[in-house]
């Protein structure tokens, strides 16, 4: 049994260590959580995070179908700050243009296109978040950059996002023309509760040690519920890892208590052509799983891992195999998604897990009112207790790697600290039998204080507990 200390604020931060070798240099990117707003209603914050996690899960599970659709260099490391935020995301700072313009981007492993709020006319609706003024969201100014170029309709990078059939939409281009001036079509992207739209550019992505020219990026002129741009770390050609030729990237998400405090850590990006299968000391690894489904090619954008077991306390929760591994239709399986706050489980899986918690925590009364207010559950009344004894939650992956979660990664104190709630969610709207897409989505809340590594060169996922702050 694990004991829950009384920490009630929600915040994430990332700290990454610098790896060294004879043939490497280093670039860092800072990761930060959004700071907690002192006057914010705790129930409302949790309800917003729960609702956005469910909406995000729906989007990942039922995405719009994607159309069918590197240069080598000595290995080097790029670093950028990573910051946690109370709206649920972690942001990194990236600089685009000539001269460079620095902006914040939500780090998202569940999507691929990177985009920034763009032009002085950028409009974001429903973007009132703690410490975010919709009228003052920083934007990229294309007219101030000498390296900004619109992507042409016949540019191969246009098809990265729209697929090879985009050429049929180049109506102003002659079929044999190589100098067509028609722009790539506008994009509109959905992110669960939010969305964005704009035009594709190629622009310089600038790090202190290196500049990447002609990086494909979206110039969004309108958004909904998007407090910052998106840095897409998915698996498609337009993603940041693909365009930079990353061998691996890693991060360490700090506790949610640092939301909106300005505390940051580093995200590590390793580029170059160097190969080799050396593992980072101390990490447990499991291979990425290739979802071979052709019913929805968007599923190929996700980072699937094979979850073998879910254990609550010492009890193995017997989840049906069809939820643990994608079937021939591509549905089922587990993905790792930094863009989701709370871990999502398909309702049949969630019910098995939550009922086991209810059984093992039967000495605490249920806090039904808090469940209705927060969108989380089960919730337990701990008034009068100096500490809470709760069963451990363990995810065991293919190859034997075990993620034994700290209690603060799956239970949260709510309201006046007299109630704790399980921070795993499900969709109460989707009817039984209508499940699709990934059955389990491992969100950022459950990744707090873990060093996480996406080893792309060796197609594996690594992790280890680490105090990230």
UniProtKB/TrEMBL annotation:
<dbReference type="InterPro" id="IPR032861">
    <property type="entry name" value="TAXi_N"/>
</dbReference>
<comment type="similarity">
    <text>Belongs to the peptidase A1 family.</text>
</comment>
<feature type="signal peptide">
    <location>
        <begin position="1"/>
        <end position="22"/>
    </location>
</feature>
<dbReference type="Pfam" id="PF14541">
    <property type="entry name" value="TAXi_C"/>
</dbReference>
<feature type="domain" description="Peptidase A1">
    <location>
        <begin position="90"/>
        <end position="464"/>
    </location>
</feature>
<keyword id="KW-0325">Glycoprotein</keyword>
<dbReference type="InterPro" id="IPR032799">
    <property type="entry name" value="TAXi_C"/>
</dbReference>
<keyword id="KW-0378">Hydrolase</keyword>
<dbReference type="InterPro" id="IPR051708">
    <property type="entry name" value="Plant_Aspart_Prot_A1"/>
</dbReference>
<keyword id="KW-0645">Protease</keyword>
<keyword id="KW-0732">Signal</keyword>
<dbReference type="InterPro" id="IPR034161">
    <property type="entry name" value="Pepsin-like_plant"/>
</dbReference>
<dbReference type="Pfam" id="PF14543">
    <property type="entry name" value="TAXi_N"/>
</dbReference>
<protein>
    <recommendedName>
        <fullName>Peptidase A1 domain-containing protein</fullName>
    </recommendedName>
</protein>
<dbReference type="InterPro" id="IPR021109">
    <property type="entry name" value="Peptidase_aspartic_dom_sf"/>
</dbReference>
<dbReference type="InterPro" id="IPR033121">
    <property type="entry name" value="PEPTIDASE_A1"/>
</dbReference>
<dbReference type="InterPro" id="IPR001461">
    <property type="entry name" value="Aspartic_peptidase_A1"/>
</dbReference>
<keyword id="KW-0064">Aspartyl protease</keyword>
């Amino acid at each position: 049994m694990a004991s829950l200390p009384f920490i009630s604020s929600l915040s994430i931060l990332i700290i990454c260590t610098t790896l060294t070798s004879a043939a490497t240099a280093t670039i860092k990117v800072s990761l930060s959580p959004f700071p907690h707003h002192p006057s914010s209603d705790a129930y409302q914050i949790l309800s917003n995070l729960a609702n956005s996690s469910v909406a995000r899960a729906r989007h990942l599970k039922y995405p719009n179908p994607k159309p069918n659709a590197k240069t080598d260099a000595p290995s080097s490391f790029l670093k950028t700050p990573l910051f946690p935020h109370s709206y649920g995301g972690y942001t990194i700072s990236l600089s685009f243009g000539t001269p460079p313009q620095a902006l914040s981007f939500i780090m998202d492993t569940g999507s691929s296109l990177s985009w920034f709020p763009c032009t002085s006319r950028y409009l974001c609706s429903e973007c009132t978040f703690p410490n975010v003024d919709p009228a003052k969201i920083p934007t990229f100014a294309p007219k101030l950059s000498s390296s900004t170029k619109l992507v042409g309709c016949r540019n191969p990078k246009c098809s990265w996002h729209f697929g090879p059939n985009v050429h049929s939409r180049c109506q102003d281009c002659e079929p044999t023309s190589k100098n067509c001036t028609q722009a790539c079509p506008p994009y509109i992207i959905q992110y669960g509760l939010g969305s964005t739209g704009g035009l594709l550019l190629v622009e310089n992505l600038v790090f202190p040690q290196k500049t990447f020219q002609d990086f494909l990026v979206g110039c969004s002129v309108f958004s909904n519920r998007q407090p910052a741009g998106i840095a897409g770390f998915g698996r498609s050609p337009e993603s940041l890892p693909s365009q930079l030729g990353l061998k691996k990237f890693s991060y360490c998400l700090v506790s949610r208590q640092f939301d909106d405090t300005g505390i940051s850590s580093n995200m590590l990006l390793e580029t170059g052509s160097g190969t080799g299968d050396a593992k980072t000391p101390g990490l447990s690894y499991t291979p990425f799983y290739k979802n071979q489904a052709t019913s929805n090619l968007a599923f190929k954008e996700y980072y699937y891992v094979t979850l073998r077991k879910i254990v609550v306390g010492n009890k193995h929760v017997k989840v049906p195999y069809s939820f643990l591994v994608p079937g021939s239709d591509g549905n089922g399986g587990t993905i790792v998604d930094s863009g989701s706050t709370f871990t999502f489980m398909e309702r049949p899986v969630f019910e098995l897990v939550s009922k086991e918690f209810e059984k093992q925590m039967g000495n605490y009364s249920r806090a039904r009112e808090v469940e209705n207010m927060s969108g989380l559950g089960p919730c337990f009344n701990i008034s009068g207790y100096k500490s809470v004894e709760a069963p451990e939650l363990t995810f065991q992956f293919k190859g034997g790697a075990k993620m034994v979660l700290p209690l603060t990664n799956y239970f949260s104190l709510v309201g006046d600290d007299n109630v704790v709630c399980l921070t795993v969610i499900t969709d109460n709207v989707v009817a039984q039998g209508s499940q699709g897409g990934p059955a389990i989505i491992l969100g950022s809340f459950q990744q707090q204080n873990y060093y996480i590594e996406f080893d792309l060169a060796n197609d594996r996922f690594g992790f280890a507990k680490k105090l990230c702050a």
